[in-house]
């Protein structure tokens, strides 16, 4: 949450002098108590200050890190996911390489005949499969992909922090965002990548979360 200059000043006054009454804060700013009322309401509602009757306002000690943490707990995958690029199991390694270039993505998801998630193809999977061979058109992606059930997935309502943790733990670049279709089958509805996670950082820095 971005505070106005006046709210920052109030916060500083309370930090240095609290507990302090609204009246006294107003005096220090040469403003009326009524003018300050909305700012004090915002600062108390957002948890920066607490007000005690007959005592005044005091600083809750909520740190910027806690505030940042609060913000991050609100961000879910659906706010930051991208469109998934998929190929089918029977497509060749050659086709997959072309799709990767054309769609400008680093990870492809592979779907079976029913359209459910079957595998993942990374850049290095495709490089490895094509090193020193001319017949990439003859190799189906199904024999080189990382396949279900060894795929790390996430759902659109998961926290972005959860997805980021999985990317780090598994040392991978992307997770498919899936919808449960029952019977251990998943429909691919998006993808979340290291680039999407980097966007969270940039948005936080610019105070422009989704
Ligand atoms: P690269 O292989 O280009 O470095 P990654 O680090 O994303 O890219 O992939 C490393 C390996 O992990 C690859 O073999 C890939 O198939 C596999 N992989 C990628 N994403 C996932 C995922 N979401 N779940 C399981 N395995 C994955």
TrEMBL record:
Could you tell me the keywords of this UniProt record? CBS domain, Repeat
**Domain CBS residues, every copy:** 80-137, 145-209
Organism domain of life: Bacteria
SUPFAM superfamilies registered for this protein in UniProt? CBS-domain pair, Winged helix' DNA-binding domain
One Pfam annotation reads: CBS
User: What is the name of the protein in this document?
Assistant: CBS domain-containing protein
Question: What species is given as this protein's source?
Answer: Marinococcus luteus
